[in-house]
Amino acid sequence: MTLSLFDQFMSPVFLGIPLIVLALTLPWTLYPTPSTRWLNSRLLALQGWFLNRFTQQLLLPINLGGHKWALLFASLMLYIISLNMLGLLPYTFTPTTQLSLNLGLAVPLWLATVIIGMRNQPTVALGHLLPEGTPTPLIPVLIIIETISLFIRPLALGVRLTANLTAGHLLIQLIATAAFILLPMMPTVAILTLVLMFLLTLLEIAVAMIQAYVFVLLLSLYLQENV
After folding, report:
1. Cβ(184)–Cβ(26) below 8 Å
2. What are the TM regions of this chain, as residue ranges (predicted)?
């Protein structure tokens, strides 16, 4: 039973070729491309409005030096949302349930924010490792703790996204299995279970969008500290 539950998170392979590459490139083909017309379609107008509002709210506390990251943050959030939402479809694979992929996204971006801080304002960047007013005997201990917390940030980013999506997929599969087993024996209970699964699916849609936003929001907060 344990193996069958977690089989859905294994990267599919066809003729020895990992299909995770196809799953990662598929979302780019679904985005509407800008047209040469003066008036855009409703879908393009909605997409433009959403990206504008998102970048305004995300970059509001960041100074002008960090606004160069607007395109990267908007593209990253839209990409992660697409991967999470496509993974909720039946017989599909969710690449963002793989910790290696999430760490591959989190570590380079976190490292870029740290390098920017060390290059532009090294004194301020190193000052985050020691809070102001710290008693002298606690200085070595606090420096070690703050350094560890700094290096844990990308791991927390990747694990948070992986754990939330994996837990949601497991719950949906467990409830669907229970409804399938209960249908011939207790139809009423099975119908109630299906209603619960429908509500859980709506919750997972919200989680798929919220986790993508949280991922990018935390990256912007890390950038704010170093810009």
Report:
1. no
2. 12-31, 69-89, 101-118, 138-159, 171-199, 205-223
Please give the model's pTM, rounded to 2 decimal places: 0.84
Helix (H, G, I), strand (E, B) or coil at 227: coil
Task: State how far the Cα of 126 lies from the Cα of 112, in Å rounded to an integer.
Answer: 15
Amino acid at 66: G
pLDDT in tens, 114-126: 999 888 888 887 8
User: What are the C-alpha distances in Å from 40 to residues 27, 34, 37, 52?
Assistant: 21, 8, 6, 15
- Give the C-alpha separation, 185 to 208, whole Å: 34
Residues ≥6 apart with Cβ < 8 Å to 154 = 103, 106, 107, 110, 111
H or E element at residue 176:
helix 139-182
Please, how many CA atoms are within 13 Å of residue 179, restricted to the half-sphere of its CB?
15
Helix (H) or strand (E) holding 17: strand 17-18
The Cα–Cα gap between 86 and 101 comes to 16
3-state SS, residue 13: strand
CB 122 within 8 A of CB 35: no
